[in-house]
Amino acid sequence: MAYAMQFLLLLASAATIAPANSAPSWLPNFWIKMMGTRLDIPFVYEEATIAGIQEAFDGGRLTSVQLVKYYLDQINSVNPSLHAVQEVNPDALSDAARCDSQRATITGAASRRSPLHGIPILIKDNINTRDRLNTTSGSFALLGSVVRGDAAVIDRLRRAGAILLGKATMSEWDHFRALSPPQGWSPRGGQGKSPYPGTVNPCGTSSGSAIAVAANIVTVALGTDLDGAITCPSTTNSVVGIKPTVGVTSRSGVVPISNRLDTVGPMARTVADAVAVLDVIAGFDPRDSSATRAGEKYIPAGGFRRFLKADGLKGKRIGILSRRFDDFEEKSAEAAIFARFFDIMRNKGATVINDLEIRGVEQMSDPAASGEAAELLAEFKVSLEAYLADLISSPVRTLADIIAFNNHHKEEERTEEFGQIIFLESEKTKGVGPLEKSAINRMVRLSKEGMEMLMAEKGLDALVFPNNVIHHALAIGGFPLISVPAGYAESGAPFGITFAGAVGSDAKLIEIAYAFEQATRARKPPPPPPLS
Ligand SMILES: *[C@@H]1O[C@H](CO)[C@@H](O)[C@H](O)[C@H]1NC(C)=O
What we know:
- By secondary structure, the chain is an alpha/beta fold.
- It folds into 3 domains: 65-300, Amidase signature (AS) enzymes, CATH 3.90.1300.10; 317-364 and 445-520, D-Maltodextrin-Binding Protein, domain 2 (3-Layer(aba) Sandwich), CATH 3.40.190; 369-436, no CATH class.
- Helix content is 41%, strand content 12%.
- It has 22 helices and 13 strands.
- Strands 1-3-2-6-8-7-12-13-11-9-10 form an 11-stranded mixed β-sheet, with helices on both faces. It has a two-stranded antiparallel ribbon with strand order 4-5.
- Strand 2 (120-124), helix 7 and strand 3 (163-168) form a beta-alpha-beta unit.
- Helix 5 packs antiparallel against helix 6 (92-105), helix 15 packs across helix 19 and helix 15 (372-389) crosses helix 20.
- The two termini are 30 Å apart.
- Residues 87, 90, 132-134, 143-144 line the site of 2-acetamido-2-deoxy-beta-D-glucopyranose.
- 2-acetamido-2-deoxy-beta-D-glucopyranose binds next to loops.
- Residues 1-22 form the signal peptide.
- Keywords: Signal.
């Protein structure tokens, strides 16, 4: 979870533009393609898109091995300062070589290959991979644990031919151990750092995934989200993040906080790339059957990619949570950018409805008052211990074991400095009982009366707000969210814009976010990092 726990406990106790980058912009497309294939114009790795990479594969200008080597070089040079990658997959190069030979032997296969075939992807460290990579949620306590198999989403990625480049750093235990560790910090990964100047912390908890994509260390990445853990680091590091409706992607084989609210989603430099990943990872999983059976019906036949439409804003009704933009009011540069964005939405055929607010948003953002705090503490222990029990072998099997581990490894885990108050509070709980169930029901009711009624009353297709300012209020309903880069403050710090929709409206949100991105194209790669 992003940072809701901070006050929670305090109170409770780009489409294919890559080839164009490689040649002067006055060259017509046709000649760029001709030169690319005939004259061997070097492939431009920076800001490469999946479509651009696949085109270069097909044109014989690039191999997966070359691509992986480029990213490994990037990791060597910038990761010592950014701390985005925790482990590199020792099999990444041989997996890439296998993809290259598959591509060479299957003739006319371009249309039959998955768009992710031969594409390197970085995996958040709380997602199980049954290979030489460890899965530890950033903690030394899980180092050496052996997972039963790949997480369902990893299984799908491997079958599509994606190359697991490694594990991304994250906020340890999804920032659910204590209040004070900085976001993006973990004992195993160190302190993740945004590649952009002016950013104090990279936001969490899928911090390494966002940093790596932003800094061109990898093509795409996987994150997980409960209440902003994908969208916050995405907006902070100027990448696209999709938090799908809970149940669209399976959570089996993921270190959990809450089986009710956790979700897995893609992070990428463009909406199209994020959607390419989503199309592969989405779907029914017997090991997460009740959630994914519900989620399955939101996945369109032919995939979400069918909704990458340049005119996707046409006819949409978009509600602006105006008060949420007030913080930007004083910063006239940002305010002007958002005002221009709303004009663009109108010009592209959307109806923009101003001055909306979600009923009960303050209550929902106050988990102590709502009972959500106590509920999550109870749910965490149950969910985590079920995960630990399922490991083939593990140095820890219970939350109490992890607490003891932290007490015995004060130095690595910085236990004295940060403590483990959330763990200790969670350890006191006794399962999800009537009290917790009534808290859940109350939250669900608030969520229905808030977000859902507003959407219905105003006939909205999406709500829009800056960064991810109402992440907690939107977590409860399992709503889908998409964050898109919006611009940069004077300091250089990125800011983003987030679209939220009703449960199951993922496809519609993709239409809106893609059309918005095509019309604005706000993302810029970060400046090269200072040499460490
Ligand atoms: C996994 O952890 C073990 C134990 O620390 C280490 O030896 C191994 O190199 C790690 N795997 C990778 C791929 O880094």
